[in-house]
Amino acid sequence: MYKYFKRLVDLLLALVLGIIILPFMLILGLYAVLFIKEGIIFTQDRIGLKNKKFKLYKLRTMTNERDSSGNLLPDSQRLTKLGRIIRSLSLDELPQILNVLKGEMSFVGPRPLLVHYLPLYNQRQIRRHEVRPGITGWAQINGRNSITWKDRLEFDVFYVESFSFMMDLKIVYMTVVKVLKREGISGDNTATMKPFTGDNS
User: Fold this and answer.
1) For the stretch 101-131, what's the b/e string if a residue is b when 16 or more beta carbons lie within 10 angstroms of its beta carbon?
2) pLDDT digit string (tens) for 181-193?
3) CA atoms of 184 and 136, how far apart (whole Å)
4) What digits encode the pLDDT tens for the residues 64-116?
5) What is the rounded CA–CA span in Å between residue 15 and residue 138?
6) pTM, to two decimals
7) Domain assignment present for 144
8) For residue 127, what are the domain limits?
9) Is residue 147 part of a domain?
10) Total number of domains in the chain
């Protein structure tokens, strides 16, 4: 039953939270303009419900610095000091409330991943796209970026098969705990998580 009114819950929460966080977004946006000198909002194509592509919104935390050959520098070098703090508190995810309002995302669900990962999933892993992607999810409270891709994608499918109102409440609560403890922000030896290559490692 919950799956039929989950969208309504998302919409109501997004409207309320959107009003509450607007002042914080303006402050963080000012930071992006002054210190990163790029656009306030970073957009990237991601895959969502039923394998459909959409634009994910995030607060910009990295510069676009490039090497002498024109290639982007590694994430760890482009991530600013304040940007690292913003990421550790997951504040860069706040603009995704707009994705929720547009119906492209939910507050809870598998995190939307990059478009070029789509052909790399096996038949079980691709089931993660049977529900709307989320700002947070079961994988995020069970290791976030510190777990293997195999485990992360299995957690996503487990959520698809098992989600309920109580499960979503638990995920939201545990997300707050994880953010406050700043657990699982980075992968091993990387500023973010290493790319998925389809090898399930």
Assistant:
1) eeebbbbbbbbbbeeebeebbeeebbbbbeb
2) 776 555 544 556 7
3) 13
4) 778 878 788 887 778 877 778 888 788 889 999 999 999 999 999 999 999 99
5) 24
6) 0.84
7) yes
8) 2-181
9) yes
10) 1
